[in-house]
């Protein structure tokens, strides 16, 4: 694979791929990617996507190609490329590169590039692999909603209707700019009900919300859908944080009388680090700094959404000044209420201990959250009694002024 013999043409490969991709269906994308091999002096180029549990990498099928076995995220070079977001190289048995398919910090899977020759890959080969991987990532993001191929490959078991509704509503699990990073997780993947989250960055303002609708199954997912729809509508209408919360409460009462949704609604000014939040009958977020928990932020500051007619007090907006590098962890009660067979709670202390240890390992934030949800599942023998979701945001710093 370009280890001294072949002629690389990564630019030509990317141009050809971007020119041909719009003319074919999503199911033909793996064929187009596989056809790039000669231009990269490789014998094969295969796309793997991560499954919903973020525990396996599953190859997208190619016509007439071998049926490749899924690869574990834990304990493989392919998985290390996914978790670290860094290229990994295998030099034994002909050699191959594993290149992460990542957009910002949104991790889709990995690209396998099988070598045509042995020996360590040159810097040019690595650059070519990363260039092609970036193009493949963009194509998967832009075209995945036009077909069920990726959805079907990512599922280890049938998804319940409630989960189908919720996964179709959620934003990508992670997002990053030079100022802020957001990463979320949601379990159980195939049978979730009322847990949901949303975020949006508009200029310097990052909006984040976590919802936990009362109940289970499809009724809970529909209630959470209403809450997110009302939240997005209010946010896009330009309402401030308190006005947004009031609007969500109003729509819940109008369309689902008697229902309630606990929630945290937050806004982060990415220019100053000022965090404003409303904690509506929900576990209060945790503030972490330099790998340690600093404090539990104030909460609850209001009744659950849908019940505000029972109180004459308006929502109290709390304000917290973040330092560059600070992280704020939002979570639903299903995280801390996970229990062992003996009835021992996961609890806030265990949550804090796990997160601080993961942060000390300096893992990418999405990987910290992936490991957190797997730890919660393992604690309860993969049998959650309630939905468990968590979102962490990190304020990196204000943008430096432009050079004169």
Portion in beta strands? 25-35%
Structural class: alpha+beta
H-E string: HHEEEHEEEHHHEEEEHHEEEEEEHHHE
Largest sheet: 6 strands, antiparallel
Distance between the termini: 45 Å
Strand order in the sheet with the most strands: 3-2-1-6-5-4
Globally, the shape reads: elongated
Number of domains: 2
What is the helical fraction, as a range of percent?
Answer: 25-40%
Rg calc: 23 Å
Classified in CATH, the superfamily of the largest domain is PPM-type phosphatase domain
Helix count from the secondary structure assignment: 11
CATH architecture of the largest domain: 4-Layer Sandwich
Low-confidence stretches: 1-6
Mean pLDDT score, rounded?
Answer: 88
- The number of strands is 17
Q: Looking at CATH, which topology of the largest domain would you report?
A: Phosphatase 2c, domain 1
Domain PPM-type phosphatase: 177-395
Keywords: Hydrolase
Pfam families: SpoIIE
GO molecular function, one term: phosphatase activity
